[in-house]
Design a protein that fits this description.
single chain, about 220 residues, alpha+beta, 7-stranded mixed sheet
Length: about 220
């Protein structure tokens, strides 16, 4: 016996199906045509406090102070203000709880440079297993670049990485300090690291979405 004829699909339902199909195809096309950039990532390290070659201390009213209260609002401000013009975007989607969890880990430290009382840049340290300390983030707010602050701030941050166990008795003495930088960072970043005594130990290349510079808020640094 033949199967009974299927009832016709209502016109509105057929239109919805067609629209959904077109939307899915458009989304797939957008994903495949999303602009990308090739990014080179360099990893550098020091394996002894003697590796550090400190920069000269710049003139003027410059103080470097540890932010001892874990405060997601403050670290997110520093992150977006320092990295907003060089496409630091990976932490912008983190929740308040994720920021707090990171900042409250034993051995997590944020050292902030103040020029005439104004935040100018920061170094964020992250203690890891085996006596390893990563310089998780380092940089200056654009208005303070080119004033010879960066070399001193990095030197100070590396010193604090090497003596971190003095402030965290539960952490083992530091045996290695490392960081990574990439081709999206400022043009003088790599030179600063090498001048401070860091050595290159790994290089890799990745393809990433070519996102707009977010700034501390959208449009802060122009198009």
């Amino acid at each position: 016996m033949s199967n009974p004829a299927q009832p016709p699909v209502p016109a509105t339902e057929a239109t919805d199906v067609a629209d959904a199909t077109q939307a899915a195809q458009a989304a797939q096309t957008a994903q495949t045509t999303e602009p990308t950039i090739e990014v080179t990532i360099w990893s550098l390290e020091q394996t002894s406090p003697a590796d550090l070659r400190p920069a000269a201390v710049p003139e003027g009213d410059l103080r470097i102070v540890r932010s001892e209260v874990p405060l997601p609002e403050f670290n997110r401000f520093l992150y977006s203000a320092v990295g907003g013009d060089i496409r630091w975007t990976d932490r912008l989607a983190m929740t308040y709880g994720q920021w707090r969890e990171e900042l409250e880990r034993p051995g997590s430290e944020t050292w902030v440079a103040y020029a005439n009382g104004t935040p100018a840049g920061y170094v964020q340290l992250d203690a890891q297993d085996g006596g390893v300390v990563e310089i998780l983030y380092f940089g200056l707010i654009p208005a303070f670049r080119g004033r010879r602050i960066g070399g001193h701030l990095l030197s100070y941050g590396v010193e604090r990485a090497w003596d971190l166990a003095e402030r965290w008795p539960e952490r083992p003495p530091t045996e290695r300090v490392w960081l990574h930088t990439c081709s999206k960072d400022g043009p003088y970043a790599m030179d600063n690291y090498l001048r401070r005594g860091f050595r290159l130990f790994d290089t890799k290349t990745e393809v990433e979405p070519d996102v707009a510079t977010p700034g501390p808020w959208p449009g802060a640094y122009g198009a």
